[in-house]
C-alpha cells in the first residue's frame, strides 16, 4: 500500500520500519525533520509537511495528536483511511471519526501497547475502534505491527480499551517499583527475587523490564513519566463519576516524583517514591 506515516519517535520509527520491510511504500513526516533520516535511508520518502504525507492509508503515532489530526483530516482525499495509533480521549476519537465521515474519510482509533521492544519486534497489542470495513482494509498493515489486533467496536472503543490498559500499567508499575525497593531494603539478591517472582502470578513483561532497568540504575525511558501522567488524565476524564482511588493515588505519587525528577525519565523513576 501507499502509506503516509506521521510521527517517527521512539515508537513510530520502528513501527514504520516494519511496514517498509514488508514492502509498503512510505512517505514519512516528523516535526523534527532529522528524525526521519534513518527511514529515508531505507527507502521511505520524506514529507516536509503533514499535508504532503498522504497515501491510501495515513497512520499517526504521536504523543499529542490533536492539532496534527485536524491537519491530516483537512488534507486527506476522500477514500483515505486514517489510523491514529496515538493514545487520546475516546470522545476525541469519536469527534475525528465524525469529521472524517463528513469528508469521505474513514478514521480508526488504534492505540498500541508493548513499548519500543514490541514496536521493533512487531509484537504490539493494537486496540481498534471504528468502521468495520475500514478496519478490514488496514488489518494486514496492523498485523505487520502487532501480534494481537482486536476490533473493539465503534469509534472511541479502541481508545477506551487502551485507557483500561494504562490503568493496569500505572498500578503495576508503582507496585513493581515499591516491590523492588522492598527487596533492596531487605538485602535480597535482586536476580534471585525476580527468578522467584517473575515465574509466579506476579510475573509479567512489565515486571521484567522495570526490574532490569532498576537493577542497572537506568532511568532512561521506555515509557516517559510525562506520557503516563497524560494517559492517567485521560483515564480520569473517561471514568467520569466512577471512583478509581488506586489510580488517582498512583497519579498523585507520579506528580510528586515529576516535580522533583522531571517527566522525561522512564516510569521506573517511581522507585523514588520509596526514597522520600
TrEMBL record:
Residue stretches making up the 6-phosphogluconate dehydrogenase NADP-binding domain: 2-153
Superkingdom to which the source organism belongs: Bacteria
Alphabetized UniProt keyword annotations: NAD, Oxidoreductase
GO molecular function: oxidoreductase activity
Protein family (similarity comment): Belongs to the HIBADH-related family.
EC number: 1.1.-.-
Protein name: NAD(P)-dependent oxidoreductase
Database matches in InterPro entries: 6-PGluconate_DH-like_C_sf, 6PGD_dom2, 6PGDH_NADP-bd, HIBADH-like_NADP-bd, HIBADH-related, NAD(P)-bd_dom_sf
EC category name: oxidoreductase
Pfam hit, one: NAD_binding_11
3-hydroxyisobutyrate dehydrogenase-like NAD-binding domain sequence ranges: 156-273
Amino acid at each position: 500500500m501507499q502509506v503516509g506515516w506521521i510521527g517517527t519517535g521512539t515508537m513510530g520509527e520502528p513501527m514504520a520500519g516494519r511496514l517498509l520491510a514488508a514492502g509498503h511504500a512510505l512517505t514519512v513526516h516528523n516535526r523534527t525533520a532529522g528524525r526521519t533520516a534513518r527511514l529515508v535511508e531505507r527507502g521511505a520518502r520524506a514529507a516536509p509537511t503533514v499535508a504532503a504525507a498522504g497515501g491510501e492509508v495515513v497512520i499517526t503515532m504521536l504523543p499529542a495528536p490533536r492539532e496534527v489530526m485536524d491537519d491530516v483530516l483537512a488534507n486527506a482525499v476522500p477514500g483515505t483511511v486514517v489510523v491514529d495509533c496515538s493514545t487520546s480521549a475516546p470522545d476525541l476519537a469519536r469527534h475525528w471519526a465524525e469529521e472524517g465521515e463528513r469528508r469521505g474519510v474513514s478514521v480508526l482509533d488504534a492505540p498500541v501497547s508493548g513499548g519500543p521492544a514490541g514496536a521493533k519486534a512487531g509484537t504490539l497489542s493494537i486496540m481498534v475502534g471504528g468502521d468495520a470495513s475500514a478496519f478490514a482494509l488496514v488489518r494486514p498493515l496492523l498485523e505487520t505491527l502487532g501480534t494481537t489486533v482486536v476490533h473493539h467496536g465503534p469509534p472511541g472503543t479502541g481508545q477506551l480499551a487502551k485507557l483500561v490498559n494504562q490503568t493496569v500499567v500505572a498500578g503495576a508499575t508503582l507496585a513493581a517499583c515499591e516491590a523492588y525497593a522492598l527487596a533492596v531494603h531487605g538485602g535480597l539478591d535482586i536476580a534471585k527475587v525476580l527468578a522467584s517472582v517473575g515465574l509466579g502470578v506476579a510475573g509479567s513483561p512489565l515486571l521484567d523490564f522495570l526490574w532490569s532497568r532498576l537493577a542497572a540504575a537506568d532511568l532512561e525511558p521506555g515509557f516517559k513519566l510525562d506520557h503516563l501522567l497524560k494517559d492517567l488524565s485521560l483515564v480520569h476524564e473517561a471514568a467520569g463519576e466512577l471512583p478509581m482511588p488506586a489510580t488517582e493515588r498512583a497519579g498523585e505519587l507520579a506528580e510528586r516524583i515529576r516535580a522533583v525528577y522531571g517527566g522525561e525519565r522512564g516510569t521506573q523513576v517511581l522507585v523514588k517514591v520509596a526514597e522520600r
